[in-house]
Amino acid sequence: MWTVAWHAYRRFFDPKALGIIALFGVGIVLLAVDPEGNFIVDPQSVIEQGQMVAVALAVLFVIFLGGTEIPRDLKDRTILIYMSKPLGRRDYVIGKFLGPAMMGLTLLGCGQLLFAGLLAVRGRFVGWPYFEELIASGLAIVMLAAIAALAGARLPEMSAALFTALLAMAGTFSFLIPLFAAPLGPTPGALILWMLYYLLPNWHHLTFGRETAEITGYWLWMTLYALLFSSFYLFFACLTFTRRDIQ
Fold it and tell me: Domain ranges in the chain?
């Protein structure tokens, strides 16, 4: 399982991938200061933009590399090499989840810490809310990697990436579903909407009410939510792949 995860993680060191990372790194630097070392815009806006750049990079890698890991192995028959070893299909799928998840967390952490360090050099120190956003984004990356594993276990490369991207976007708006489901009462339509609400990712859960919550309990529940959600998708990813013909 960990060997599979490492092989997936190694795509992080592909020259094309490193080139994209370098471009995003330059973008982070350009966002923060001008050539003379002064903030281009309001420092708080710079911090928010820098966070968005780091998150966007991690999300793109998880979607387009994580979502295509299993289909790529099936396409080039690398899967037969894995299956010839004492490795179960379940361990293979979990490895293909762990690799992209670690890749996304590495990109996210390095990008955010690089940006925080750059701001510190300029005399602007980020506070605890900055790292709260980092934790929330990290949990979202883990959930997204689980979605990518399920998509890859069932769909071809481009379809898997598209499916993962669509669910990532749906998670931005899924918190609105109860507003439409509640007025319908106990009807089949409401039941379908509530099922969608619990099956789709909900990034709003990772931010809503954080300012007023007791911090330890809040992050305990949010971590539990991310782990339960990821486990649910991984269960169906393993179930789907164990029934799939790979010959």
Answer: 2-242
pLDDT at position 70:
86
Nearest by Cα to 16 from 66, 65, 77, 62: 65
The amino acid that residue 32 corresponds to is A
Q: Is 121 exposed, middle or buried (0-12, 13-18, 19+ CB in 10 A)?
A: exposed
DSSP letters, 34-80, are -TTS-BSS-HHHHHHHHHHHHHHHHHHHIIIIITTHHHHHHHTTHHH
CB 184 within 8 A of CB 99: no
- pLDDT averaged per 10 residues, the chain (length 247): 70 66 62 54 58 78 84 84 82 90 87 74 69 84 92 88 89 84 82 85 70 62 88 92 78
**Sequential DSSP letters for 170-199:** HHHHGGGHHHHHGGG-SSHHHHHHHHHHHH
The pLDDT value given to residue 143? 92
Residue 33, helix vs strand vs coil: strand
Report in angstroms the alpha-carbon separations of 44 from 48, 118, 168, 207: 6, 14, 26, 18
Residue 122: per-residue pLDDT? 64
Q: In whole angstroms, what is the distance from residue 130 CA to residue 123 CA?
A: 16
């991690």: which residue's tokens?
Answer: 58
User: 49, 39 in Cβ contact below 8 A?
Assistant: no
DSSP β-bridge partners for residue 33 = 39
CA distance 185 to 82: 50
pLDDT, position 123:
67
Report if pTM > 0.70: yes
| pLDDT score at 232 | 92
